[in-house]
């Protein structure tokens, strides 16, 4: 086949990889009715995780959850979370000032806190809060067990029937652990919201809004609707935390490699804030360089280089190629195509800028979020979260490498479910000067 479409066989399955935006759009967007299923992953079935939207089969349950996510995460709706995003970005500054060595834990924790506050109005109580630790365990487990080649049972489904007394071959205890975690992530936060509603203490959240909407339904309809709400909201943690954290880590590596870009971005930020205050969303239109850095991070080291596999529900023919019922994935090749992005391995934010310094529209970058009916519903949220975290960090910290660190060789590996993340690296967050410290402290006191 051509370089735009590659195919190979693995364990009797046909894998088709799409390397061109045109082909991906032609198939996933225009023929979405038959290209929007997901491959069956036996271990997820064993764990009874059918409610997890990213892996849900193309059908009514997925449609219901997806409708909710599309509605509540559309551009107009995510503006409601700006204050919360800004506040969490500033909490990160406070924590980095207090304990800079724990930077990685702070970044992970705050992304989790942001999602739990948005979805359930839940304010996390420290690093060991059960709601966050269990959601994190589930997110890690879900990405590990779905990673291609990680579990034999996914390729040889008959292994699911091996009894537990054959421990080397049985997947039953793993399935039970996954099921227990899944049930807790799915139900406990919803119970928390219902209890808060009964006490009159519920904070604004997606769960509250959606539960209030189901109140007018009949009992059976309400139970069904609540199930979809619970699944969609719990999916946000699984799909939205590790991905955003990975993007922030990619940003840090890019800055460690290119300290000059940090200076340019800081100059732009200073001109807008006058160093009288921390940046806000209102400043965004005047910060095209910072925005271009965010875009280049997503292109340079895509968070999901392989995307999530779509599966066809019937055989198809595309430009003379026969495409059987198969697993398809669109890959990093699109964002690293030298004809679209010359010197694709170089980190160059200016790709996203016009000659006059304004931001250039680039439809190809959307590939980072997938395609068609399964395109990432969280993309508008990511866009704003990523921007405010990056702008806030750069405004007050110099991000620097240790004296003997060699960041040229930070390798990326998959954390699971196709999420790519830099391997551990060292990074120092040094307040730019006394003024920077004062800004962080003043904001902390005002909170
Ligand atoms: C840098 C951050 C992120 C990236 C790069 C990213 C990328 C992706 C990609 C490539 C897909 C698969 C699309 C496809 O199948 O064609 C996806 C699916 C999904 N994403 Fe994201 N995502 C990010 C953050 C988020 C966030 C913050 C949320 C929610 C709060 C989210 C929720 C989801 C969900 C629920 C799906 C499954 C959609 C479905 O199967 O219908 N993502 N994402």
TrEMBL record:
Entry's Gene Ontology molecular function annotations: heme binding; iron ion binding; monooxygenase activity; oxidoreductase activity, acting on paired donors, with incorporation or reduction of molecular oxygen
Keyword field: Heme, Iron, Metal-binding, Monooxygenase, Oxidoreductase
Query: From what superkingdom does this record's organism come?
Result: Eukaryota
Q: What is any Pfam family matched here? A: p450
Annotated residues that bind heme are located at 376
In which pathway is this protein known to take part? Secondary metabolite biosynthesis
Signal peptide annotation: none
Which cofactor is essential here? heme
- State whether keyword Transcription applies: no
Q: What family does the entry list?
A: Belongs to the cytochrome P450 family.
**What name does this protein carry?**
Cytochrome P450
């Amino acid at each position: 086949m051509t370089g735009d479409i590659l195919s190979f066989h693995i364990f009797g399955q046909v894998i088709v990889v799409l390397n061109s935006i045109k082909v991906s759009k032609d198939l996933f967007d225009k023929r979405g009715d038959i290209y929007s299923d997901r491959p069956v992953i036996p271990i997820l079935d064993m764990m009874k995780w059918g409610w997890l939207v990213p892996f849900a089969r193309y059908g009514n349950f997925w449609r219901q959850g997806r409708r909710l996510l599309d509605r509540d995460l559309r551009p107009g709706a995510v503006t409601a979370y700006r204050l919360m995003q800004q506040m969490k970005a500033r909490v990160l500054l406070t924590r980095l000032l207090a304990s800079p060595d724990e930077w990685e834990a702070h970044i992970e924790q705050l992304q989790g806190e942001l999602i739990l506050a948005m979805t359930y109005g839940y304010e996390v109580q420290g690093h060991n809060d059960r709601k966050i630790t269990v959601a994190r365990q589930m997110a890690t487990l879900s990405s590990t067990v779905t990673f291609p080649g990680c579990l034999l049972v996914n390729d040889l489904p008959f292994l699911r029937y091996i009894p537990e007394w054959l421990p080397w071959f049985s997947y039953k205890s793993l399935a039970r652990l996954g099921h227990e975690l899944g049930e807790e992530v799915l139900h406990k936060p919803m119970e928390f919201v219902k209890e808060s509603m009964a006490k009159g203490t519920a904070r604004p959240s997606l769960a509250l809004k959606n539960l209030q909407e189901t109140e007018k339904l009949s009992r059976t309809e309400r139970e069904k609707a609540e199930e979809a709400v619970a699944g969609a909201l719990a999916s946000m943690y699984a799909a939205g935390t590790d991905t955003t954290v990975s993007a922030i880590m990619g940003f840090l590596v890019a800055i460690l490699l290119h300290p000059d870009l940090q200076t340019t971005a800081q100059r732009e930020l200073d001109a807008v804030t006058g160093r009288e205050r921390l940046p806000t969303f209102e400043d965004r239109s005047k910060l095209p360089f910072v925005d271009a850095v965010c875009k280049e991070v997503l292109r340079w080291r895509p968070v999901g280089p392989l995307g999530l596999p779509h599966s066809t529900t019937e055989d198809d023919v595309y430009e003379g190629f026969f495409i059987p019922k198969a697993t398809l994935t669109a890959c990093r090749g699109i964002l690293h195509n030298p004809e679209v992005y010359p010197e694709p391995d170089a980190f160059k934010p200016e790709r996203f800028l016009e000659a006059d310094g304004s931001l250039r529209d680039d439809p190809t970058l959307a590939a980072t979020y997938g395609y068609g009916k399964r395109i990432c519903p969280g993309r508008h949220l990511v866009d704003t979260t990523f921007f405010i975290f990056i702008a806030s960090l750069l405004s007050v910290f110099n991000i620097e490498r240790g004296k003997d660190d060699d960041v040229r060789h930070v390798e990326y590996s998959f954390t699971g479910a196709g999420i790519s993340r830099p391997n551990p690296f060292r990074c120092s967050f040094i307040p730019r000067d006394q003024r920077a410290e004062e800004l962080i402290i003043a904001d902390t006191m005002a909170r």
